[in-house]
Amino acid sequence: MILTNLIKQWWRTIDQQAVIAYGILIAFSFMLVTTTSSAVAGKIGLVDNYFSSRQILHLFVGAIFMVAFSSLDKKWIKRIAILGFLFSLTMLILVKFYGYEVKGATRWIRIAGFSYQPSEFLKPFFAVVTGWILSLKYQEGFPSFQVCILLYALVAVLILIQPDVGMLILITAVFASQLFIAGFPIIWIMVAFMGGFFGIVSAYFLLPHVTSRINNFLDPVSNENYQISKSILAFEEGGLYGRGPGEGSVKQHLPDSHTDFIFAVAGEEFGAIICIMIIGVFAFIVLRSLIRINNEQDKFIQLASIGLITQFGLQAVINMGVTLNLLPTKGMTLPFISYGGSSTLAIGIAVGMLLGLTKHKTSLVKYKNSDV
Asked: Which residues cross the membrane (predicted)?
């Protein structure tokens, strides 16, 4: 009875339409990973349902995280985000010494038999922590900008060591959006973007895999641009209505069809109409969240939420842009749809915190009004 009342109160206070939209994305993930997994698993000697069964577990745990974090009020979200950020930062340091290499980058570490990518979890916690620190600028004398810059610089160095330029670009964009909303002088935001541009140029000349990806993007007919050419062909063959579930061939050719290029699978098997629906769901979530914080007076909620919204929306844009050859290739998943343990769980945490920050003022769990 108590649990039923708690669930009812949670449902009344939460953004119900956004929760339904997230549920639609989860349904798409189950459908697309299922149609893709057998082909990918067969090529590397695994059982047909290896990826689909693991993704079901990832989505289930991610949904639990989403509900759990959305049940908290802003003070507990802030506290957990600080602890999560410190833990993720520590793990990011350990990756340098104990991580293992995949495709030329050391971003993963094994814990208790599971692979873990600390930078995925760092993203949402960093957005909330910087949102909190930037909100303190309204307290006279607190050097919020300087503190945030130091944190950002530390995170940037640790991510570049891996290296993961795409992740750094995403985190930089999130941080810049928060600076803009916080009302910092536009000159500092321009400096941040110039620094980002300089970083990309430096990465182009210093990191061979970045050089290759940008060159392939600028020369789409290159023989090395195999994945992109297959991705574009998948959309062409899918047409308006698609070839039907399981009938596509792109998953037989792309090693990352269940992760980075799952949108191409959707285009070939379900057609342009379903792809437009997926884009529409992402757009709805972003716009809906922006509307929820439009009149928010609490600076912490406003700044943390804008960081989480930017992260969610921009990650989706990057993934789909790469698949359509609108952006250089970057190993970034499509939120809640692509296969991936760390990615799915981190997105569950991110949207859970976003739902918790944007819900109605009557909290599911009552806490004292003390702050961190």
From this structure: 20-44, 56-73, 79-100, 150-175, 187-207, 270-291, 303-324, 336-358
